[in-house]
């Protein structure tokens, strides 16, 4: 067996979803490893604090496991997970406490930049975070999914169970509001 | 939209002022220009924009305005350490995958969780050249069936899985690399996994069911 090469590119999510449905916990663990950062990131940007974000991400990943049999595979696993995370985050926000904008992004030390540059970046990040937190929830959701996660309008519509024109409309309003907030900060 | 307007904006185009307007003096609507800048497509100018100073100034202004958003979006937000472990721990409880191997020694009893057996088998299979992914599964029903068969001759009223506490049945779903001889890879997996479980856990009897359910090329990512 020594003659065979050992390079192993990653298998697709669809394969892992199928195996997870067959009872291979390993497969679901690989999916969690791949997508937990996304789940946490989206929750954090929507709810604004790390503690709630971790709870939301954890609940969403467990809920996805529990509902895996219902996942039809019409969309990608990540789109489906975006849907679960977004819904749970919005539910938590409407029920729970207000977000603390300063907690959205933990400053991550970047050895490639000096303290002044890092401070400027943190200030900009806080301005963005504050502006984002001030948006109405539907607008915040579409901004996070499109501008922060890079989802297309069609994907955002699928995640939010909306339509492309509705997403576009929310984004138009959100950008103007965000723009005005950022202009105040400049 | 009117034709290109080549005179420069009279008093500059501060973003706040622009964001209160619906259109530019040239007739171009504000929202699509803001969308273009926010989506990072400032350089993708259409025919009108290539000759219109109003559009060019507005796009430049919006691009600068949106820069902190783009920068924040590009900032890595790592998952909290332990998130995956916390999720999987709860799922294992839900899944009730809690049977153990059982080995009685003169010093006491050694129990090793089935998921450890499955994980070792999986990692062992992944070491075999040609294997692109290996997923381990060990089920209570299978080992119970094996115990049933093996203890048929000396059935005890309280015979349980523990009777065959050093026996394991492991399912392995594997995807192999395209071009490798599948049956050879599968056989290598069986031998490698059996040896690993015997050496690392002390299991006496190991059945390894290899299910090759995908053949992947380099493009399958």
Can you give a write-up of this model?
The complex is a heterodimer of chains A (186) and B (221). Chain A is mainly α. Chain A has helices at residues 13-21, 25-47, 50-66, 77-95, 115-133, 137-148, 153-159, 164-185. Chain A folds into 2 domains: 11-100, Rna Polymerase Sigma Factor, Chain: A (Orthogonal Bundle), CATH 1.10.1740; 114-186, Orthogonal Bundle (Arc Repressor Mutant, subunit A). In chain A, 69% of the residues lie in helices and 0% in strands. Chain B has 2 domains: 15-74, no CATH class; 97-216, Alpha-Beta Plaits (2-Layer Sandwich). Helices cover 45% and strands 19% of the residues of chain B. In chain B, helix 6 packs across helix 8 (182-201). The longest helix of chain B has 22 residues, at 53-74. Residues 1-5, 8-13 and 150-164 of chain B have low confidence and may be disordered. Chains A and B meet through helix 1, helix 2, helix 3, helix 5 and helix 8 of A and helix 1, helix 2, helix 4, helix 5 and helix 6 of B.
Would you summarize the structure shown here?
The complex is a heterodimer of chains A (186) and B (221). With 186 residues, chain A is mostly helical.
- The sequence of SSEs of chain A as H and E is HHHHHHHH
Mean pLDDT of chain B: 77
Number of strands of chain B: 5
Counting H and I runs of at least 4 residues, what is the number of helices of chain B? Answer: 8
Query: Globular, elongated, flat, extended or rod-shaped: what is the shape of chain A?
Result: globular
Fraction in helix of chain A: 55-70%
| CATH level 1 class label of the largest domain in chain A | Mainly Alpha
Q: What is the number of domains of chain A?
A: 2
What percent of residues of chain B adopt helix (DSSP H or I)? 40-55%
């Amino acid at each position: 067996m020594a003659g065979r090469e050992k390079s192993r590119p990653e298998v697709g999510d669809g394969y892992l979803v199928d195996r997870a449905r067959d009872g291979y916990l390993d497969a679901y663990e690989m999916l969690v490893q791949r997508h937990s950062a996304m789940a946490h990131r989206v929750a954090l940007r929507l709810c604004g604090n790390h503690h709630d974000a971790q709870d939301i991400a954890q609940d969403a990943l467990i809920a996805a496991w529990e509902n895996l049999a219902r996942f039809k595979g019409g969309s990608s696993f990540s789109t489906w997970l975006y849907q679960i995370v977004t819904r749970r985050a919005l539910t938590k926000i409407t029920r729970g406490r207000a977000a603390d904008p300063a907690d959205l992004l933990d400053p991550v030390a970047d050895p490639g930049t000096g303290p002044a540059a890092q401070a400027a970046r943190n200030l900009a990040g806080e301005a963005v975070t504050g502006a984002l937190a001030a948006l109405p929830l539907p607008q915040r959701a579409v901004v996070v999914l499109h501008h922060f996660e890079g989802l297309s309008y069609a994907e955002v519509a699928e995640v939010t169970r909306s339509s492309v024109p509705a997403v576009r409309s929310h984004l138009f309003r959100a950008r103007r509001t965000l723009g005005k907030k950022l202009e105040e900060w400049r | 939209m009117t034709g290109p307007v080549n005179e420069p904006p009279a008093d500059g185009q501060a973003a706040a002022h622009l964001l209160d307007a619906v259109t530019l003096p040239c007739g171009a609507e504000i929202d699509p220009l803001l969308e273009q800048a926010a989506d990072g497509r400032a350089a993708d100018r259409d025919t009108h924009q290539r000759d219109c100073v109003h559009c060019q100034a507005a796009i430049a202004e919006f691009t600068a305005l949106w820069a902190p958003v783009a920068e924040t979006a590009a900032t890595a937000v790592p998952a909290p350490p332990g998130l995956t472990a916390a999720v999987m721990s709860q799922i294992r409880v839900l899944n009730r995958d809690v049977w153990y191997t059982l080995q009685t020694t003169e010093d006491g009893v050694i129990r090793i969780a089935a998921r450890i057996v499955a994980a070792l088998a999986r990692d062992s299979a992944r070491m075999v050249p040609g294997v692109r992914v290996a997923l381990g599964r060990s089920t209570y029903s299978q080992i119970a069936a094996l115990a049933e068969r093996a203890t048929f001759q000396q059935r005890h009223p309280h015979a349980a899985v523990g009777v065959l506490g050093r026996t394991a049945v492991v399912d392995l779903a594997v995807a192999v690399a395209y071009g490798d001889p599948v049956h050879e890879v599968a056989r290598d997996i069986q031998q490698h996994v059996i040896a690993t479980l015997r050496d690392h856990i002390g299991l006496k009897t190991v059945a390894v069911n290899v299910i090759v359910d995908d053949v992947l090329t380099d493009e399958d990512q």
